[in-house]
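Reopening this one. Same input as before:
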Amino acid sequence: LVARVGAHDPARIPAVLGEVRLAGREDDRYGTYSMGMKQRLGIAAALLGDPDVLLLDEPANGLDPVGIAEMRTLLKALARAGRSLLVSSHALADLQQVCDWLVMMDRGARLYQGPAHQLLTVTGMWVLVAPEHGHDIARLRQALAERGRAVDSHGDHLAVAVNGTDATAVAATINREAAALGVTLARLECTAASLEDRYLALVARTEERAQR
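Same output, byte for byte:
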Protein backbone atom coordinates (compact mmCIF):
# COMPACT_ATOMS: atom_id res chain seq x y z
CA LEU A 1 0.00 0.00 0.00
CA VAL A 2 2.75 2.47 0.91
CA ALA A 3 4.66 1.57 -2.25
CA ARG A 4 1.56 2.12 -4.37
CA VAL A 5 0.66 5.47 -2.78
CA GLY A 6 4.25 6.70 -2.99
CA ALA A 7 4.75 5.42 -6.54
CA HIS A 8 7.71 3.33 -5.39
CA ASP A 9 8.91 0.19 -7.14
CA PRO A 10 7.21 -2.75 -5.36
CA ALA A 11 10.24 -4.88 -6.23
CA ARG A 12 12.05 -3.02 -3.40
CA ILE A 13 9.71 -4.40 -0.74
CA PRO A 14 11.67 -7.64 -0.10
CA ALA A 15 14.92 -5.66 0.05
CA VAL A 16 13.72 -3.15 2.65
CA LEU A 17 12.06 -5.87 4.74
CA GLY A 18 15.38 -7.69 4.76
CA GLU A 19 17.20 -4.49 5.73
CA VAL A 20 15.04 -4.11 8.85
CA ARG A 21 15.15 -7.85 9.64
CA LEU A 22 11.51 -8.63 8.80
CA ALA A 23 12.19 -11.06 5.97
CA GLY A 24 10.00 -14.12 6.40
CA ARG A 25 7.26 -12.18 8.21
CA GLU A 26 5.90 -10.34 5.16
CA ASP A 27 2.76 -12.50 4.96
CA ASP A 28 1.92 -12.23 8.67
CA ARG A 29 -0.92 -10.04 9.87
CA TYR A 30 0.14 -6.63 11.16
CA GLY A 31 -1.77 -7.26 14.39
CA THR A 32 0.57 -10.14 15.23
CA TYR A 33 3.65 -7.89 15.11
CA SER A 34 5.35 -6.80 18.33
CA MET A 35 5.86 -3.08 18.97
CA GLY A 36 9.47 -3.39 17.86
CA MET A 37 8.46 -5.09 14.62
CA LYS A 38 5.92 -2.35 13.95
CA GLN A 39 8.59 0.29 14.45
CA ARG A 40 10.91 -1.53 12.07
CA LEU A 41 8.11 -1.88 9.52
CA GLY A 42 7.65 1.88 9.63
CA ILE A 43 11.34 2.35 8.89
CA ALA A 44 11.05 -0.16 6.03
CA ALA A 45 8.25 1.96 4.57
CA ALA A 46 10.46 5.05 4.80
CA LEU A 47 13.24 3.17 2.99
CA LEU A 48 11.09 2.31 -0.04
CA GLY A 49 12.20 5.43 -1.89
CA ASP A 50 15.88 4.72 -1.05
CA PRO A 51 16.36 8.11 0.66
CA ASP A 52 19.75 9.61 1.50
CA VAL A 53 18.31 11.13 4.71
CA LEU A 54 15.95 9.51 7.23
CA LEU A 55 14.02 11.57 9.81
CA LEU A 56 13.04 9.43 12.80
CA ASP A 57 10.92 10.61 15.75
CA GLU A 58 11.37 8.54 18.93
CA PRO A 59 12.15 5.29 17.06
CA ALA A 60 12.55 3.35 20.33
CA ASN A 61 9.32 4.64 21.89
CA GLY A 62 7.36 1.88 23.63
CA LEU A 63 9.98 -0.81 23.05
CA ASP A 64 11.22 -3.27 25.65
CA PRO A 65 14.99 -3.53 26.38
CA VAL A 66 15.50 -6.15 23.65
CA GLY A 67 13.60 -4.03 21.14
CA ILE A 68 15.61 -0.93 22.08
CA ALA A 69 18.89 -2.80 21.54
CA GLU A 70 17.64 -4.09 18.18
CA MET A 71 16.64 -0.57 17.15
CA ARG A 72 20.10 0.76 18.04
CA THR A 73 21.69 -1.99 15.94
CA LEU A 74 19.39 -1.14 13.03
CA LEU A 75 20.15 2.59 13.19
CA LYS A 76 23.89 1.92 13.20
CA ALA A 77 23.52 -0.40 10.20
CA LEU A 78 21.53 2.22 8.27
CA ALA A 79 24.20 4.83 8.99
CA ARG A 80 26.99 2.47 7.91
CA ALA A 81 25.11 1.99 4.63
CA GLY A 82 25.79 5.65 3.84
CA ARG A 83 22.52 7.26 4.91
CA SER A 84 22.22 10.30 7.18
CA LEU A 85 19.87 9.78 10.13
CA LEU A 86 18.24 12.65 12.01
CA VAL A 87 16.77 11.24 15.22
CA SER A 88 14.50 13.21 17.55
CA SER A 89 14.36 11.57 20.99
CA HIS A 90 14.20 12.13 24.73
CA ALA A 91 16.01 8.82 25.36
CA LEU A 92 19.43 10.36 25.93
CA ALA A 93 21.12 7.11 26.95
CA ASP A 94 20.19 5.61 23.59
CA LEU A 95 21.29 8.68 21.66
CA GLN A 96 24.65 8.57 23.42
CA GLN A 97 25.28 5.15 21.87
CA VAL A 98 24.27 5.94 18.28
CA CYS A 99 24.74 9.65 17.55
CA ASP A 100 27.93 11.37 16.46
CA TRP A 101 26.43 14.90 16.26
CA LEU A 102 23.92 16.48 18.63
CA VAL A 103 21.55 19.42 18.75
CA MET A 104 20.15 19.77 22.28
CA MET A 105 17.07 21.93 22.87
CA ASP A 106 15.23 23.18 25.94
CA ARG A 107 11.94 25.07 25.59
CA GLY A 108 12.83 26.20 22.08
CA ALA A 109 16.35 27.35 22.94
CA ARG A 110 19.43 25.61 21.58
CA LEU A 111 21.68 24.49 24.42
CA TYR A 112 24.35 22.75 22.39
CA GLN A 113 25.21 21.88 18.80
CA GLY A 114 28.26 19.88 17.86
CA PRO A 115 30.03 16.52 18.13
CA ALA A 116 28.64 14.19 20.79
CA HIS A 117 32.12 13.24 22.05
CA GLN A 118 32.99 16.91 22.55
CA LEU A 119 30.03 17.49 24.84
CA LEU A 120 30.87 14.39 26.88
CA THR A 121 34.53 15.30 27.29
CA VAL A 122 33.91 18.88 28.43
CA THR A 123 34.23 17.73 32.02
CA GLY A 124 35.14 14.08 31.58
CA MET A 125 34.55 12.72 35.07
CA TRP A 126 32.05 13.59 37.79
CA VAL A 127 31.75 12.87 41.47
CA LEU A 128 28.10 12.27 42.33
CA VAL A 129 27.21 13.31 45.87
CA ALA A 130 23.97 12.90 47.83
CA PRO A 131 23.47 13.72 51.52
CA GLU A 132 21.56 11.37 53.77
CA HIS A 133 18.97 14.06 54.43
CA GLY A 134 17.53 15.99 51.47
CA HIS A 135 17.40 19.29 53.38
CA ASP A 136 21.22 19.31 53.47
CA ILE A 137 21.64 19.39 49.71
CA ALA A 138 21.46 23.19 49.30
CA ARG A 139 23.92 23.77 52.14
CA LEU A 140 26.32 21.17 50.73
CA ARG A 141 26.09 22.66 47.24
CA GLN A 142 26.88 26.13 48.52
CA ALA A 143 29.84 24.89 50.55
CA LEU A 144 31.33 23.02 47.58
CA ALA A 145 30.82 26.01 45.28
CA GLU A 146 32.52 28.31 47.80
CA ARG A 147 35.57 26.04 47.60
CA GLY A 148 35.76 26.68 43.86
CA ARG A 149 34.14 23.48 42.67
CA ALA A 150 31.91 23.32 39.59
CA VAL A 151 28.68 21.86 40.97
CA ASP A 152 25.45 21.02 39.15
CA SER A 153 22.18 20.06 40.84
CA HIS A 154 20.37 16.90 39.70
CA GLY A 155 17.33 16.59 41.95
CA ASP A 156 18.36 14.41 44.88
CA HIS A 157 22.11 14.58 44.20
CA LEU A 158 24.90 16.90 43.13
CA ALA A 159 27.40 16.37 40.31
CA VAL A 160 30.86 17.81 40.94
CA ALA A 161 33.04 18.22 37.86
CA VAL A 162 36.54 16.72 37.93
CA ASN A 163 38.96 18.62 35.72
CA GLY A 164 42.36 17.10 35.16
CA THR A 165 42.68 15.62 38.65
CA ASP A 166 42.17 12.21 40.17
CA ALA A 167 38.44 11.64 40.70
CA THR A 168 39.07 9.38 43.71
CA ALA A 169 41.11 12.08 45.41
CA VAL A 170 38.39 14.65 44.74
CA ALA A 171 35.77 12.29 46.18
CA ALA A 172 37.84 11.80 49.34
CA THR A 173 38.20 15.57 49.76
CA ILE A 174 34.46 16.10 49.29
CA ASN A 175 33.79 13.44 51.91
CA ARG A 176 35.98 15.29 54.41
CA GLU A 177 34.38 18.63 53.54
CA ALA A 178 30.90 17.21 54.04
CA ALA A 179 31.91 15.70 57.38
CA ALA A 180 33.25 19.09 58.50
CA LEU A 181 29.80 20.54 57.78
CA GLY A 182 28.17 17.79 59.80
CA VAL A 183 26.59 16.33 56.65
CA THR A 184 26.46 12.55 56.29
CA LEU A 185 26.74 11.36 52.70
CA ALA A 186 24.49 8.57 51.46
CA ARG A 187 26.12 8.55 48.02
CA LEU A 188 29.64 9.29 46.85
CA GLU A 189 30.40 7.94 43.40
CA CYS A 190 32.96 8.60 40.66
CA THR A 191 31.50 8.28 37.20
CA ALA A 192 32.05 9.36 33.62
CA ALA A 193 29.74 12.12 32.45
CA SER A 194 26.67 10.83 30.62
CA LEU A 195 24.67 12.64 27.98
CA GLU A 196 21.84 13.01 30.50
CA ASP A 197 24.23 14.58 33.03
CA ARG A 198 25.44 17.10 30.48
CA TYR A 199 21.91 17.96 29.33
CA LEU A 200 20.65 18.51 32.88
CA ALA A 201 23.72 20.62 33.66
CA LEU A 202 23.12 22.82 30.61
CA VAL A 203 19.44 23.24 31.53
CA ALA A 204 20.33 24.13 35.13
CA ARG A 205 22.84 26.76 34.03
CA THR A 206 20.34 28.27 31.60
CA GLU A 207 17.76 28.56 34.40
CA GLU A 208 20.32 30.13 36.74
CA ARG A 209 21.20 32.78 34.13
CA ALA A 210 17.50 33.51 33.56
CA GLN A 211 16.97 34.10 37.28
CA ARG A 212 19.80 36.61 37.58
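So the earlier flakiness isn't reproducible anymore. For the record, The longest helix spans residues 195-211.
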